[in-house]
Amino acid sequence: MKSLFYIGILFTAFSVRSTVGKMISKEEYVENWRQIAVRQMIEHKIPASITMAQGILESGNGNSDLAKKGNNHFGIKCHDWVGEKIYLNDDSENECFRVYSTPEDSYVDHSLFLKGKNRYSKLFNLETSDYKGWANGLKDAGYATNPKYAILLIEIIESLKLSELDILGSNSEKLTSKITSNRMEKVILSRKVLIHENEVKYIVAKKGDTFFQIAKEFNLGLRQLYRYNDFGLKKDVLVEGDVIYLQPKRKKSKTNNTTFKVEKLTNLTQISQETAIKINSLLKMNEMFSMDDKIEKGEVIRLK
Hints:
CATH architecture of the largest domain: Orthogonal Bundle
Number of domains: 3
Structural class: mainly alpha
Strand content: 5-15%
CATH class of the largest domain: Mainly Alpha
Largest sheet: 3 strands, antiparallel
Order of helices and strands: HHHEEHHHHEEHHEEHHE
Number of helices: 11
Strand order of the largest sheet: 3-4-5
Oligomer: single chain
Shape: elongated
């Protein structure tokens, strides 16, 4: 398959941050999909930089017909596909491509496609930091017909500094390697565990942290950690300074504070993280607000 660029396309209906009548830039594409690329790297050991560069190249930054109509960001053809299909001109006229329900499904299938084909098996012996090895390996294995495919991928990665995303995969591998195979004892990395005044243990996220890494580090289930915190399931790459709770938040304040006075524009989700009180409990105690309501400075929130 070759890179799929289409000129004159107005917009993509499936881009997270795109707007009608506006072409998506490379930078916007990275912002839209970098988190799922990192998640695929952690799960499948495919460099996030490679996934992002392929997505950019194969979908024209998400602006191609195939990306818009078929949610297919990687130009994967039908082969033994039993799902919905779309026919477009590529190496030949009227070629068959896979259609996905969402762009996220395309990213997942891209990982499974690479892992499921013997011709790509040697790539998984490479480090996730070796994006040049991956780029050349994809070209040699015949992922695309363009003889400059590896060069194009490497240029995209280096111009957008996508290799910085691969550091997250390296950190994950180092953590996993510290689990002994015979006794499965986890070596907890040196990290200070704090206790909120509401008597809930938490840590402060460092640069490059992910829920996956923290869950492994503290021997917690990934979904368990999501439940303890009020971030959405798509938030995997954390922001430095994020408060991450390691146990359930409280149903109400255990301190003498019965209310919380808002000092800047916020919402109940952020207040939940700040007070270590479950979002559902705050919703019940403050019926005038919903989870998504913007709460103005000066508003008073009940904590018990």
